[in-house]
Design brief:
Blueprint: H1 2-13, H2 21-30, H3 35-42, H4 46-52, H5 63-79, H6 83-87, E1 118-120, E2 141-143, E3 151-152, E4 178-183, E5 189-193, E6 198-201, H7 206-217, E7 234-237, H8 239-244, H9 253-258, H10 266-273, E8 277-278, E9 286-294, E10 297-304, H11 313-316, H12 324-337, H13 345-356, E11 360-362, E12 373-375, E13 420-422, H14 427-430, E14 434-440, H15 443-448, E15 453-454, E16 459-462, E17 472-477, E18 485-488, E19 491-494, E20 514-518, H16 519-527, E21 536-539, E22 543-544, H17 548-564, H18 573-580, H19 588-607, H20 633-658, E23 664-666, E24 669-674, E25 704-711, H21 712-721
Parallel strand pairs: 4-7, 7-10
Antiparallel strand pairs: 1-2, 3-6, 4-5, 5-6, 8-9, 9-10, 11-12, 13-23, 14-24, 14-25, 15-22, 16-21, 17-20, 17-21, 18-19, 23-24
Helix pairs in contact: 3-4, 12-19, 13-19, 16-20, 17-19
Length: about 750
């Protein structure tokens, strides 16, 4: 009989009533839950939960997942009723609400009780809003009184922001990856952690603060890869905390230029007396204090000091000016979705590559049962490798024998860079009213996705047969490729080649003879229908898709944060444009996270070819970055090559189908003349479907968004004012402000 009852219960559960998709999303966001958190709890994919909340065409959960999902929504509905439900004399009665006999009369939002340490700034949840207006930011906790115990986790889960409890499943890191230290009115040091948690910090000095962090703080994050290492705890010091621990609020000009405190500073002497060490970069905006590892145990704490410009405003906006709790939330989201910051966004982008592909791993046990460190397949290894001479930037030791003022041309130097191209408008384009810019989302991340790059040293080959699957640098003449007649797919098409940039040079000029190119560029010449005959090449036979995991993590971080801002991946073109309008204002802190994720992509790739940074360097001498296994200019060149080629392929596809040609291209932004102000006025959508292989509106990496619209008269006036008929209008299309003549920056 019990089996029959179980079967009946399962049948009833499979039809558990659910609220509309809009309400499902409202309830999740009101409680500060991410799609990832709900998916993990219900043991389904993130995309599955996103489908349940889709306002366009929601899917419905089935089986035990439906019962659990309905239970979650019922509980959230009790905590976060709509204003209409609050005003009603009777309990909430939307489909799937609790049984009326069990529900309380809701005269006020039934939020969970907070401890004395935190109090939500407001307890009123906004009414459901359309996706274009996105829900308001999750209320954040504000400290009121100090707890009596050393550590207290507030009960107001409502205050916990999306995706910040990185260490929640690991008891070693139960307080999250980082803490922002501040001093209250009573002179007590408080550590603001992720999820609204606030800890008392008893430490009176920097050395004791490091001890407390490692022994009691329970801060840090689990490793991102099996052979990798756990993330060290990060402490962010406010100005008040700096004064409390005897550090200057701001660096002197000399210290700022040196990037660190002088060796004779009292804090550095304190650390030396207590046998703590600093890395080579010393005590600067990003400092690492450690003791040599004992076995597998690491003893290392990282410090971030915003008032010393640790959080560069170009990438972190006004993050350094935020109150401690809000800064902890912002950095916590970034840490949980990308990784705990290890320095600038560029440094973190590079460190993420290594964290996902550690250089070594533990071997299988030997005859004595011991394991040893061995090369981790798919990584760049622990030792640096020389680049090919054509890949070396000017001043590299490989070029020490060149004459002092020798300028290398395309036949000597690999020059794979992003687009900076523009042309005068045609008479027909001048009759149109608008210039519309579109921008490729996460263009360089998309260029890295699935890209095969070299993992080891290059091999020199003369008169090679080109292999599009073999990463490397090729010396080949592509001047015969005529854009007036190219293959698009399997068919030859005729275009106006004078209105197109060359895909082979950053400035869009047609090559004049042999030049060095990365594999994706040469492969594209073949794709366009032309024969290639390389003269020589530097190829890397040991290769792999090294950047795939890096791309996936940054893509997921970007998409999850944009979804929290109300921009989902499954919106129609019209809804997407509406959702993107003003998305930064919905939650300025999460908007900063989006900017930081983008900067992590570009900065990490830039670090692959880091140049000398002073330190008395002279041309022909090695510089510090060359000692890293991740100093790989060939990988950077391959990503940029593929990104530029991906963009050109879409431009050609668009021109072949519509007869429209770009007026300007800058990196990942393309400007077209159009009769209307919207991208939909010139992008060829049919029945809501884009041109296959062309530009598509959407938030996913590789798709495009609206960058900005100006008038054709504006473009002509600007070019005339500066007497520059080929001024790159893509540089100014966003807001139309032109402050000086175009200098390429």
């Amino acid at each position: 009989m019990s089996e029959l009852f179980d079967a009946v219960d399962a049948l009833v559960a499979s039809r558990s009533p659910l609220p509309p998709a809009e309400e499902r999303k409202r309830l999740r966001v009101a409680h500060g839950l991410t799609l990832d958190e709900v998916a993990a709890a219900l043991k389904v994919r993130r995309a599955t939960v996103s489908g349940w909340e889709s306002t366009k065409k929601p899917t419905e959960p089935r089986g035990p997942e439906r019962e659990a999902y309905a239970r979650l929504l019922r509980q959230l509905a009790e905590l976060y009723p709509t204003p209409q439900e609050l005003a009603a004399p009777a309990p909430a009665t939307f489909t799937g609400a609790p049984n009326p006999t069990e529900a309380q009369t809701l005269s006020a939002p039934q939020a969970p009780k907070a401890t004395a340490m935190t109090a939500p700034e407001n307890t009123q949840t906004p009414a459901p809003t359309p996706v274009a207006a996105a829900p308001a930011a999750t209320p954040r906790p504000a400290p009121t009184t100090r707890p009596s115990s050393t550590s207290r986790r507030p009960g107001a889960r409502k205050a916990a922001p999306a995706g910040t409890l990185a260490g929640a499943t690991d008891p070693r890191f139960e307080n999250g990856p980082l803490a922002v230290l501040d001093v209250d009115a009573d002179g007590k040091v408080l550590a603001y952690c992720t999820g609204g948690l606030v800890l008392d910090v008893p430490a009176k000095s920097i050395p004791s603060l490091v001890d407390w962090t490692l022994k009691e703080g329970k801060l840090g994050a689990p490793k991102l890869s099996g052979p990798g290492k756990d993330a060290d705890p990060l402490l962010v010091l406010t100005e008040a905390a700096l004064e409390r621990y005897g550090l200057p609020v701001a660096l002197t000009e000399e210290e700022r230029l040196a990037g660190r405190l002088p060796e004779g500073h009292k804090i550095i002497k304190q650390l030396a007396r207590t046998e703590w060490k600093l890395t080579k970069r010393g005590f600067g905006p990003w400092a690492r204090i450690y003791r040599p590892a004992q076995g597998s145990e690491r003893a290392c704490v990282q410090f971030c000091i915003p008032s010393w410009n640790a959080l560069d405003t170009r990438h972190w906006g006004e993050a350094g000016q935020l109150p401690p709790a809000e800064l902890a939330r912002l950095l916590g989201v970034y840490a949980s979705r990308v990784m705990t910051p290890r320095g600038s966004t560029a440094v973190t982008g590079l460190e993420l590559m290594t964290a996902l592909h550690p250089a070594t791993r533990a071997s299988e046990p030997d005859a004595d049962g011991k394991r040893h460190s061995e090369h981790n397949p798919g990584s760049l290894g622990k030792d640096p490798v020389d680049c090919a001479p054509c890949e070396a930037p000017d001043g590299h030791p490989l070029l020490a024998d060149l004459p002092r003022f020798h300028v290398r041309g395309p036949a000597e130097k690999l020059f794979e860079e992003a687009y900076d191209w523009a042309r005068p408008m045609t008479d027909a384009e001048c009759t149109l009213r608008h210039l519309v810019g579109i921008d490729v989302n996460m263009a360089f991340a998309a260029g890295a996705n699935g890209l095969v790059v070299g993992l080891g040293s290059p091999t020199h080959v003369t008169n090679p047969v080109f292999d599009p699957k073999l990463p490397g640098s090729w010396l080949v003449d592509l001047s015969h490729v005529d854009l007036s007649k190219v293959k698009v797919g399997k068919e030859w098409v005729e275009l106006d080649g004078s209105l197109l940039p060359s895909p082979f040079t950053p400035k869009g000029d047609r090559p004049e003879g042999p030049a060095w190119y990365a594999t994706p560029t040469v492969a594209y010449a073949v794709e366009l229908g032309y024969e290639v005959r390389p003269v020589e090449a530097w190829v890397r036979r040991e290769n792999g898709r090294y950047l795939d995991g890096w791309y996936n993590r940054l893509r997921d971080a970007y998409l999850a944060t944009m979804a929290d801002l109300g921009v989902d991946a499954d919106l129609s073109p019209e809804d997407f444009l509406a959702a993107m309008d003003g998305y930064k204002g919905r939650d300025p802190e999460l908007a900063i996270v989006v900017a930081a994720v983008k900067a992590t992509v570009k900065g990490g790739l830039g670090k692959l070819r880091e140049r000398p940074r002073g330190e008395g360097w002279r041309p022909g001498e090695p510089w510090r970055a060359l000692s890293r296994p991740t100093w790989r200019p060939d990988i950077r060149a391959a990503v940029i090559s593929r990104t530029r080629i991906n963009l050109h392929r879409k431009i050609v596809k668009h021109a072949a189908f519509t007869g429209q040609y770009p007026v300007a291209v800058l990196s990942d932004c393309v400007v077209y003349a159009a009769s209307g102000e919207s991208p939909l006025d010139f992008l060829p959508y049919r029945d809501g479907k884009p041109l296959p292989g062309g530009f598509k509106l959407g938030i996913n990496p590789g798709l495009v968004k609206h960058e900005g619209t100006q008038s054709v008269l504006w473009g002509e006036e600007v070019r005339e004012r500066f007497n520059a008929p080929e001024l790159n209008l893509a540089r100014y299309i966003k807001d139309g402000t032109v402050t000086d003549v175009d200098n390429g920056e």
